[in-house]
Write a structure and sequence with these properties.
heterodimer; A: Rossmann fold; six-stranded mixed sheet; four-stranded parallel sheet; 14 strands; B: 454 residues; Rossmann fold; 46% helix; binds iron/sulfur cluster; ATP binding (chain A)
Chain lengths: 529, 454
């Protein structure tokens, strides 16, 4: 029996049938590498997935530092999203920074019974009094949708009354099947109410947006440092260390760089439709990944000087890390890894591991869709189901005034054909034969795969980290980087290599078995002689 | 650093800023993890379960297993009965627990799922159990959820057969595994045989063995919970976390209870020892008296550094009251005492302590938040903050020494192994407090005042 069959075989027939669709034995499976994704988790299964609210408030909105974000609901949801995702943000002159605060309406029973709108209105009034924010976000949690509070009407009224921006997000946890629904809801509202409103002057024609970069562990800062060194102007970052002011100006860029495809591709596409700005799937994780990405961006801008500068910067940056990388590679070469995280990282980190001579034998996404696995070519074949139909999809029209093309249309089309822009190939193309790709990898499967594949490292989230470690396998968190970072770009690669190396070589691993477990019962002599 | 917090008083009635509590289910999940071979199950959308597991894992640095009904929009409209049914089948099938402990979330509570009816409808395999508790997040806090789960285990399972078993029931309240071990050690030292419910020691502080165990060795067994009905007496620690469980056991099986404060500090530990002694009718062994004497000796030694120092304490009500009493015993002034969990009993208990020790000008508040605590500190400063991780921003903003005690502590390690309860716990707490204050004194000392001995 193959490893997959072995794992699946322990399920009842119904679960077996369902889960089988979510597993691919790369290039050896009957389905031609087709995978089921973005569908419901089976009740009772210990999943690592979160909810719509986590994707909306936790992932996309959370990092926007100058929006005062009120979570409308009972206390828990707001509490858990308070400072736990490590999206770093610098306080800047003239820009509010609420990242260290948690705001909630802390709904009580009467609010559930009689409706919570009144309390929400009051909460907004108090927030305005105390904090004078320029922007307020309202995120709703499970009970709010059920009792029917109209948070959008409350937001409209607040805008009028206080002369501020107030945006509501109906991101109740039960919507969709994972965090993914929440990304989409957040994207829609940002497109509707934020992007395009700014009139900041853009100084360089090499102007880019970085989309799907949330500045975990300072990743966004490292990426920006490299881009600026080459001569790019970063107009906005969605949404790591960002402010509403920055986001408003996204329509001024000439290219959108998409780091995390899943969480932000909606915005990338809508920006292109409305403002003519194409998007490029990039990856700043891994040395080779970063180099390739920088060259691709230069290719798009097609400017001799920029291209030359790109090579100079690449050579210089590599020079600075070469010794470190060589050292860590000598320590890690030949090791194997399994990765289960998010909706892009499971792909990106394979490049960085590859740089270090580590091969990835199992990878999966927590809330990816089929395109993250199989590439955007499968988009026309994805049938929407009831859960995805419930998530609003908005269409946008070209904006007559702000629409602009950096390259002539034929060239854009050529680049599209070359798949340099507007394309994402998915993870599968970068996975070797005989490796495994598993969607929504649950606890049981994690345990079983770890037992059978015995990777040296398991990259995951906090909920399964200690499961792996208790079974003797090093685990590092890839959502929060185990409180380290940055891991992006050239310097980040060294940080990552250092962290993995110290994990593998920590002497404590050698003490896991107590020595007396291996030695026979003492043959003592009497009297201590 | 919390730059927008102003000291001016402002009455908020709707906006919660930087809460000092969280929602019920995480407490219920923690309690259920203290039962051997139990799978905590979260009935609602999977996000809640993910958050709660994340939080427990971050505090304990150990796996916190729990399953979920994974509601999507359909279940939210039509009710979660079929989700629970499917879930139960899969859980027994795949994870083979002895018992499933279901708690609700604000979602299933709002749609009004009738868990009693659902569970009656479910085919529970022979020799297995399924219990539930209601944990609406719009009432109480995680402490309420903990207390509800303990009470539900008892009301579902405990029976009295008429034959007393000579045991005491120890209900430890929402404390760390390290505290539970210490409570048990003291009981054993006094010759009391007991059952502890819940008991997360061995579960959330499990050893590294090279093998992951879904159900580690620790936890109260189902048989033990059933037999609770035959116990002689319950020692319930903490009104907020344990009274409901003790009361349920009394009502259901006629087991009387003694509601004790969580034994943090000298007099509260004394109270526990006396209760144990009364139960077992044995002499207090010298070892314990020695520990007590050591603690008293320590407090006398350190008093120049602690006396009259002002401290803010926040966190869970039973724990905060314990720490408050202990710092009063140390001659400190618990200037601000705050819990996020609502309940007047907290305020009256705190005020009784202020009176007992004759301190003036202290404020106690239940159902408060850290924004307000910060405002008080800005208004009138203090020397030390004691509480969970979320106090670190205030500590940094106001440049005040901070020690972590209580729940949650998500930015430090090892705390959950070390007790705060008992004389030993007192020594540890006294050490942390004194060192924090002395470090501060060293840091602030002028060059010419900086001394080797202190
Ligand atoms: S939805 Fe309710 S139960 Fe779930 S995390 Fe939020 S407050 Fe807690
Ligand atoms: S990489 Fe994954 S976890 Fe991170 S933001 Fe993207 S979708 Fe979320």
């Amino acid at each position: 029996m193959s490893v997959l069959e072995n794992v699946l075989d322990q399920y009842s027939s119904r679960v077996y049938k369902n889960r089988k669709e979510h597993m691919v034995d790369v290039n050896n499976n009957e389905n031609n590498n087709q995978i089921a994704a973005n569908v419901r988790t089976i009740p009772g299964i210990i999943t690592q997935r979160g909810c719509c609210y986590a994707g909306c408030k936790g992932v996309v909105l959370g990092p926007i530092k100058d929006a005062l974000q009120i979570v409308h609901g009972p206390i828990g949801c707001s509490y858990y999203a308070w400072g736990t995702r490590r999206h770093k943000g610098k306080t800047e002159e003239g820009v509010d920074n609420y990242l260290q605060y948690s705001f909630s309406t802390d709904m009580q029973e009467p609010d559930i019974v009689f409706g919570g709108e009144k309390k929400l209105k009051k909460a907004i009034a108090e927030a305005v009094d105390l904090f004078h924010p320029s922007t307020i976000f309202i995120c709703s949690t499970c009970p709010v949708g059920l009792i029917g509070d109209d948070i959008h009407a409350v937001a409209k009224a607040a805008e009028k009354e206080y002369g501020i921006k107030c945006i509501a997000y109906s991101c109740e946890g039960y919507k969709g099947v994972s965090q993914s629904a929440g990304h989409h809801i957040a994207n829609n509202q940002i497109m509707r109410y934020v992007i395009g409103e700014g009139d900041r002057e853009i100084k360089s024609k090499f102007a880019v947006n970085i989309l799907g970069e949330y500045n975990i562990g300072g990743d966004g800062w490292e990426t920006e440092r490299i881009l600026k060194r080459i001569g790019y102007e970063v107009v906005s970052t969605f949404t790591g260390d960002s402010s509403i002011e920055d986001l408003k100006n996204a329509h001024k860029a000439n290219l959108s760089l998409v780091q995390c495809h899943r969480s932000i591709n909606y915005i990338a596409e809508m920006i292109e439709e409305r403002y003519g700005i194409p998007w490029m799937k990039v990856n700043f994780i891994g040395v080779q990944g970063t180099i390739e990405t920088l060259r691709n961006i230069a290719k798009y801008f097609n400017d001799e000087e920029l291209t030359a500068k790109t090579e100079v910067v690449i050579a210089d940056e590599i020079g600075l890390i070469a010794d470190d990388m060589a050292y860590y590679k000598s320590k890690l070469k030949g090791k194997t890894a399994a990765i289960y995280v998010g909706g892009s990282r499971a792909h990106h980190y394979q490049f960085l591991l590859h740089d270090l001579g580590v091969s990835t034998i199992l990878a999966g996404y927590e809330f990816g869709h089929r395109d993250e696995y199989e590439g955007r070519e499968v988009l026309p074949f994805i049938k929407p189901d009831a859960d995805s139909k419930n998530i609003e999809s908005i269409t946008v029209e070209p904006d007559k005034e702000k629409y602009h093309l950096y390259l002539p249309e034929e060239e854009i089309n050529k680049l599209k054909e070359e798949k340099l822009i507007d394309y994402y190939g998915g993870m599968i193309k970068d996975m070797a034969n005989g490796t495994y790709m598993v969607d929504d990898l649950n606890h049981f499967e994690t345990e079983e795969f770890l037992k059978r594949l015995k990777p040296d490292i398991f990259f995951s989230g906090i909920k399964d980290k200690f499961v792996a470690q208790k079974s003797g396998i090093l685990s590092r968190q890839l959502h929060s980087y185990d409180y380290s970072g940055p891991y992006s770009g050239f310097r980040g690669a060294v940080n990552f290599a250092r962290d993995v190396t110290m994990g593998i070589y920590t002497p404590a691993w050698s003490f896991v078995k107590a020595p007396w477990k291996n030695t026979p019962v003492l043959e003592g002599t009497l009297g201590g002689e | 650093m919390l730059d927008y917090t102003k000291k001016e008083k402002y009455d908020r009635t709707a906006l919660r800023v930087n809460p000092a509590k969280t929602c019920q289910p995480v407490g219920a999940m923690y309690a259920a993890l203290g039962v051997h071979e139990c799978m905590p199950h979260s009935h609602g959308s999977q996000g809640c379960c993910a958050f709660h597991r994340m939080f427990l894992t971050r505090h304990f640095k150990d796996p916190a297993m729990a399953s979920t009904s994974s509601f999507t929009e359909g279940a939210s409209v039509f009710g979660g009965g079929s989700n629970l049914k499917t879930a139960a089948k899969n859980i027994f099938d795949i994870y083979n627990p002895k018992i499933i402990a279901v708690h609700t979330t604000c979602l299933s509570e709002t749609i009004g799922d009738d868990l009693n009816a659902f569970i009656q409808d479910i085919d529970i395999p022979e020799g297995k159990y399924m219990v539930h508790t209601n944990t609406p997040s719009y009432k109480g806090s995680h402490i309420t959820g903990f207390s509800n789960m303990v009470a539900s285990f008892i009301s579902y399972l405990s029976v009295s057969s008429g034959n007393k078993n000579g045991k005491a029931v120890l209900m430890p309240g929402f404390v760390n595994p390290g505290d539970m071990r210490e409570l048990k050690r003291l009981a054993t030292a006094l010759g009391v045989s007991y059952t502890m419910l819940p008991d997360t020691s061995g579960v959330l502080d499990s050893p590294m063995t090279g093998k992951f165990e879904m159900y580690p060795k620790g936890g109260t067994t189902v048989e033990e919970i059933i037999a609770l009905g035959n116990s002689e007496l319950t020692l319930a620690f903490g009104k907020f976390a344990s009274e409901a469980g003790a009361e349920t056991l009394k009502k259901k099986c006629g087991v009387p209870y003694n509601l004790l404060p969580i034994p943090i500090g000298i007099s509260r530990t004394d109270e526990y020892i006396i209760a144990l002694q009364a139960f077992s009718k044995t002499e207090v062994p010298y070892d314990i008296e020695e520990e007590r004497g050591q603690l008293v000796d320590i407090l006398i030694d350190i008093h120049p550094y602690t006396y009259n120092k002002k401290v803010a304490i926040f966190g869970d009500p039973d724990t905060v009251l314990g720490i408050t009493e202990f710092v009063l015993e140390m001659g400190m002034i618990p200037k601000y005492v705050l819990t996020g969990t609502p309940g007047d009993a907290f305020v009256s208990a705190a005020e009784a302590l202020f009176t007992k020790f004759g301190v003036d000008g202290c404020i106690a508040k239940a159902g408060g938040d850290l924004y307000e605590l910060h405002q008080w500190i800005k208004e009138d400063g203090i020397d030390l903050i004691i509480g969970g991780t979320h106090g670190k921003h205030i500590a940094r903003a106001e440049d005040i020494p901070f020690i972590r005690a209580g729940f949650p502590i998500i930015d430090r390690y090892i705390h959950s192994y070390m007790p705060l309860v008992g004389y030993k716990g007192g020594m540890r707490l006294a050490e942390m407090i004194t060192n924090a204050l002395m470090d501060r004194q060293d840091r602030d000392a002028l060059e010419e005042d900086f001394e080797m001995v202190m």
